[in-house]
Amino acid sequence: MRNWKIRPWPAVALLFVVVVLAAWLRVDFVASVDHRVSHDTVHYDIMVRQLLEEGIYAYKDTKPNAQVTPGYPLFMAAVYKLVDYREHDPFPYIRYAQVLMGTAMVVIVYLIARRLGGLWTGLIAAMAAAVYPSFIWTTGAILTETQAALLFTLYLYLQLIAFDGKKAVHAMLAGAAMGLTVLTRPEFLLLIGVSYLFYWLWSREAARAAAKLLLFALLGTALVLSPWVIRNIVTLHEVVVASTQVNPFAAGTYPDKNYEDGLVDRHGKTQMEVAMERLKVGFSTKPWEFAKWYTVGKLNYIYSKMFYGSGHQPYYPVIPYGRWFHMALLGMGIVSCLVLLRKWRQPAALIVVLLGVLTVTRLAFVPEYRYNFTAMPLLIIIGSLGGMMFLRWIADTYRMKWRNYLPGGRRNEQRDFDHHTGI
């Protein structure tokens, strides 16, 4: 058993099985159900066709705008062109491309978890990501979620490498990955600053060294975002780094999504004006209702259920008791976050910090299960790490012989192997 532990091929074989399972589940889902098309997908389709046929980039309009970032629409446009959208329905091809994206994300989840907790932590996290129902259902949705999750986990992996190696090139690559993530979903932009603030506090690096890495990370982000920013300056005559969409923020000011509560007069006002007035009136006249909505109310919407994609028939269950699996991942992730916060000067705590910032950020907007889809890879990684830490504690407490083969065991030569290989 000891020799098996330090050889790479069994690990590669197990990872291969997990990846094949992940790919098969996603392909089987895409091929075996009738997929519904969401409201947003309809408008993405109109937008992409308008871009290809008239050269106008605009969402829900015929004049150029920056309502949505271009990452996903440009991906759609590329597929439309490749398959000749006038002759073929491009949606099935987009779904199969998202099968590849979702499967790649499983591999990145493995790499992150393995880097933080060792081989078995990586394999457990990859297995959980491979069969988590929401990750599979979302491959059928022509929406940003699958692409955003892939790019965000890629950023996290590259950022951990940059923190470990302290090389400018790695920091720049992480920044570039963040730029691609922001072009898909703009709410991630502030996380790069949060990451380096954490790094400076955790590593006790000199401010100059941390600032150098941050500078190269921002450079990578800026290089990726610059074509979009320049387009907005030239076409819209304003500086727009991400997007100008206000609706998610404005819609978030309606407790329990009661959009006809009549709290303020909306006539003749912009969405932002209505939103700010609602916050002012709401917190002054109904403080308990609004305080509850902006805390436990939105948290319940965000985390209590899985995102089911755009819908499909017949129902594709993926695994039995998927709802309980989701709750177990959520519970294990929360417990692991609390444990890691006790000893936060370690790379794994970065995931806890980013998860916390993402959660707080989303409390400002309308709560939707899909908006928190990208938090689930982080919860799976943290939960897997916490699970292995718990096994380590049990093994040490009861002096079980197999404790030496867990991460941190004295006969676990896997630690050196893990550090020097890229598997």
TrEMBL record:
InterPro entries with a match to the protein in the record: LipidA_mod_glycosyltrf_83, RgtA/B/C-like
Species name: Paenibacillus plantiphilus
Listed transmembrane segments: 93-113, 134-158, 178-201, 213-230, 324-341, 348-365, 371-395
Coiled coil: none
Domain of life assignment: Bacteria
Subcellular location: Cell membrane
Protein's name in the database: Glycosyltransferase RgtA/B/C/D-like domain-containing protein
Keyword presence, Kinase: no
Keywords: Cell membrane, Glycosyltransferase, Membrane, Transferase, Transmembrane, Transmembrane helix
Keyword Transmembrane helix: yes
Main location: membrane
Glycosyltransferase RgtA/B/C/D-like domain ranges (all copies): 69-229
Membrane topology of this protein: Multi-pass membrane protein
